[in-house]
Design brief:
The chain is 33% helix and 18% strand. The chain is an alpha/beta fold. The strands form 5 sheets. A 6-stranded mixed beta sheet has the order 3-2-7-23-24-25, with no helix packed on it. The chain has a 6-stranded mixed beta sheet with strand order 9-10-11-12-14-13, sandwiched between helices. Helix 7 (149-158) crosses helix 13 (287-298) and helix 23 (526-535) packs across helix 24 (554-560).
Length: 619
C-alpha cells in the first residue's frame, strides 16, 4: 500500500461523528444540546433510585430522552436478593495476591463470599441456589479500558464487519460482498466497515473495477478501518446523484484515473458522506438501541465493563450523554459503561452541559477527560523523535505542547482524571512533560491517575518518568498482532519496532498497564488480547514474535483486562476482582487460561457472563 494511503485511527480526531450528521435522533439531540436552548444533563441524579418521571425533568432534552427510552424503564438495580452459590469451581479472584478459591456466592448484585466450599456454604445459609460448575473457571468480568462503545455502536449496528479479524485477503472480502449481494433484494444498500488493505493481502484500494462486477443493482459502500477512506460502486454514486463531474469538497477528494474518470475510491468524510448519507439506515438507526445491541453482543466475549474514550463524537456535542443516560435507564444494560468527554468539543461545552467527573452511577459513569497528543503510527501521524522509515516526516501533534499542558492543568485542577492519547515517542515526551507540569503545580497525581492511551513507542527513560509521575499505560495490543509486521517493515524498521507495546518492561518497572481493543479499530475479544500479550505473535507472519522480551505471563495479562482496567477507570472499588462486597460481574470459562497452550487461549469458550448479579449470557 502506498504511504499516502495510511491514515490515523478514527478516535484520534473523533471522525465517527461526521458519519451520523444526517441521523434524525442525533440531529435532534445536538440541536437541543446547543448553547442557549436551556439544555442541561443534570447528572447528579441517582438513576437507580428514581423512576422515569423523576429523572426526566423538563424541557426539550427530557422529551428527546423519553423518546429514546424503551417502554420498560425499570431501574436495572431494583432486584430482589436471591443468593446463588457456585461450588466445585476454579475461582481466579484477581485480588492483590491473585488468590484462587473453590467457591463463590453472590446475593443480589453483590459478591457475598469467596473461599473454600465449606466457607462459602456457611456464609450463604440454606436458601441459596447451588450451581456445581464441575471444575470450570470463574474470572472477574473482562473490562475494555479503551473502546468507543457509544460512537462505534451505531456504525456496528448498520455496517457489516469485513476487517482482518474475519478476512485475511481482499479477495475474501470481495467474495463475502458478492455473497451478500446474492442474498439481498435489488436496490437495497450493502454497507461494510473496517476494510484494511494495509494488512489484508491484495489490492491497495477497491474501485469500480472490483465492485461493479459484484453488482450494479445494489449500492455498495465500504468504510476503511481508518475512517478516512471509503469505496463505492457506480450504483452508489448514481443513487447519491453524483456524476463524473462532481467537484471535490475542501478537505476531501473523489479519486480519478489518468483520464479524469471517477474510480470509486474516496478520501475523507467530507467527500464520502455525500454517498453514505443516502444509506437509509444512517438516518433511521436509534443510537440507544445500537449501544444496547453492541453490549449484548460483547457479552459473548465475557465483557462486563466497556468504555467510550471520545464521548461527544457521535453527535459532535455533549448530547452523547443522553444516549448513555437512556441506555442506563432502559433496564437492558448487559455491560457497564465508563465514558470520557472528548477534548475537541472544548471544555466550556462540557461545563455548560453540567457534565462532571464521576457523574452517573455504577451502570454508566463519566470516568475522566480525553486529550490527544498525536495520531497513529501506522497512519504516519504519530509524533516521533526521528523520521519514519524511509520518510522525512515525523508525524503530527494533534495538540501542541502548550495547549496540551494548559488543558490538562485546567481539567486536573477541577478534579478530572486524564486519559491522554500518545502513540509516537515524541508525543509521549510531550505527555510526560505535561504531567511534570501538573506535579510541579501541586496537583495530586494520585487523584488525576493520568494514563497514556496506546503508549505505543516507549523508551526506558520514559518508563522511569512514568513511574516517578504515577502515569500508567493502556496498550492497544492489536498493534503488535495485526500491524506488527507493517511496523517492522514499513513504519519503523526492526530496531524501533522492538519498542512497541512494552508490557513486560513497564511491569518490571512497577508501572500499571492495561490491554484494550480501541474498538472500532479492532473488535474486542479479551481472551485473544490476553493471548496477543502472552505470545506477541503477528497476524501476517504467525511464526514471527515481535519483541519477545516484552511477553508477559497469563496472570499479568488477565490482571490487565480486569483489576488494572478497573483501577484505570476509577472503578476498582466496585469491579475488577472477585471479592466480597464488590459488584457481581464475572465470566465462566470452559478452561483455565493458565493451563492451556498460549497459542490456544483465544479458543477458550465463554460459557456464561454475569453482570450486576444477573446472567446476561448462557452459551
Amino acid at each position: 500500500m502506498a504511504h499516502d494511503d495510511f491514515y490515523g485511527c478514527p478516535c484520534c480526531s473523533g471522525t465517527f461523528g461526521g458519519l451520523f450528521a444526517v441521523n434524525h435522533t442525533v440531529r435532534e439531540l445536538k440541536g437541543q444540546a446547543a448553547p442557549g436552548n436551556g439544555w442541561s444533563c443534570n447528572w447528579s441524579i441517582d438513576w437507580a433510585s428514581l423512576g422515569r418521571r423523576d429523572f426526566l425533568k423538563t424541557g426539550a432534552a427530557a422529551a428527546s430522552l423519553a423518546a429514546l427510552m424503551p417502554n420498560d424503564t425499570r431501574a436495572q438495580t431494583e432486584v430482589s436478593e436471591p443468593t446463588t452459590l457456585f461450588t466445585n469451581a476454579n475461582v481466579l479472584t484477581v485480588d492483590a495476591d491473585f488468590s484462587t478459591a473453590q467457591a463463590i456466592a453472590i446475593r443480589g448484585n453483590r459478591i457475598l463470599a469467596v473461599g473454600s466450599d465449606a466457607e462459602v456454604r456457611a456464609a450463604t445459609g440454606d436458601e441459596a441456589t447451588v450451581v456445581d460448575l464441575g471444575g470450570k473457571t470463574i474470572l472477574p468480568g473482562f473490562i475494555d479500558a479503551h473502546a468507543h462503545a457509544v460512537s462505534g455502536s451505531v456504525v456496528d449496528a448498520i455496517m457489516d464487519y469485513v476487517g482482518m479479524a474475519r478476512f485475511t485477503t481482499v479477495d475474501e472480502v470481495l467474495n463475502h460482498i458478492a455473497t451478500r449481494a446474492a442474498q439481498t433484494p435489488v436496490g437495497d444498500w450493502l454497507v461494510f466497515r473496517n476494510f484494511d488493505p494495509a494488512v489484508q493481502e491484495g489490492a491497495d484500494a477497491l474501485t469500480f473495477a472490483e465492485l461493479d462486477p459484484i453488482s450494479t443493482d445494489h449500492p455498495i459502500f465500504i468504510l476503511n478501518a481508518s475512517g478516512h477512506l471509503a469505496y463505492a460502486n457506480s450504483k452508489a454514486f448514481e443513487a447519491s446523484g453524483l456524476t463524473n463531474d462532481v467537484q471535490n469538497p475542501p478537505g476531501g477528494e473523489f479519486m480519478r484515473d489518468a483520464d479524469g474518470n471517477l474510480t470509486g475510491t474516496i478520501k475523507n468524510n467530507v467527500a464520502f458522506l455525500q454517498i453514505a448519507e443516502n444509506y437509509p439506515a444512517m438516518k433511521q438507526v436509534n443510537p440507544v438501541e445500537g449501544l444496547l445491541g453492541l453490549l449484548e453482543k460483547w457479552s459473548q466475549q465475557g465483557l462486563t465493563t466497556v468504555s467510550e474514550l471520545s464521548l461527544g463524537a457521535l453527535a459532535q456535542s455533549p448530547a452523547d450523554v443522553q444516549v448513555m443516560a437512556a441506555a442506563a435507564q432502559s433496564g437492558r444494560m448487559t455491560a457497564r459503561l465508563r465514558a470520557y468527554p472528548f477534548y475537541t468539543l472544548g471544555t466550556e461545552a462540557w461545563d455548560n452541559a453540567n457534565v462532571k467527573q464521576g457523574d452517573g452511577n455504577a451502570l454508566a459513569r463519566v470516568a475522566g477527560y480525553k486529550l490527544v497528543a498525536d495520531g497513529s503510527n501506522q497512519g504516519f501521524t504519530g509524533l516521533q523523535r526521528e523520521p519514519y522509515l524511509n520518510r522525512e516526516d515525523r508525524g503530527l501533534a494533534y495538540m501542541e505542547p502548550d495547549e496540551l499542558t494548559a488543558t490538562a492543568l485546567e481539567r486536573a485542577s477541577k478534579g478530572w482524571h486524564l486519559a491522554i492519547h500518545g502513540n509516537g515517542d515524541a508525543a509521549i515526551d510531550n505527555i510526560l512533560d505535561t504531567c511534570q507540569t501538573l506535579a510541579d503545580a501541586g496537583i495530586d497525581m494520585a487523584r488525576v491517575r493520568p494514563r497514556i492511551e496506546h503508549c505505543s513507542i516507549l523508551h526506558d527513560e520514559q518508563i522511569a518518568r512514568m513511574k516517578a509521575l504515577g502515569v500508567s499505560a493502556s496498550f492497544l495490543i492489536g498493534h503488535v498482532h495485526y500491524w506488527g509486521v507493517a511496523m517492522r517493515d514499513q513504519v519503523f524498521g526492526l530496531d524501533k519496532a522492538q519498542l512497541l507495546d512494552r508490557c513486560k518492561s513497564v511491569e518490571e518497572a512497577g508501572v500499571g498497564f492495561t490491554l484494550h481493543s480501541d474498538f472500532m479499530l479492532t473488535d474486542p475479544n479479551p481472551l485473544h488480547m490476553i493471548e496477543m500479550a502472552v505470545t506477541r505473535r503477528t497476524w501476517k507472519e504467525p511464526d514471527y514474535v515481535l519483541a519477545p522480551q516484552e511477553r508477559i505471563s497469563v496472570d499479568s495479562a488477565i490482571r490487565a483486562m480486569t483489576s488494572e482496567a478497573a483501577w484505570q477507570l476509577f472503578s476498582d472499588h466496585e469491579i475488577g476482582s472477585l471479592e466480597p462486597g464488590k459488584l457481581a460481574d464475572m465470566v465462566i470459562l470452559d478452561q483455565d487460561p493458565r493451563e492451556v497452550e498460549p497459542d490456544e487461549i483465544k479458543t477458550i469458550k465463554v460459557l456464561e457472563t454475569w453482570m450486576d448479579g444477573k446472567q446476561v449470557l448462557a452459551a
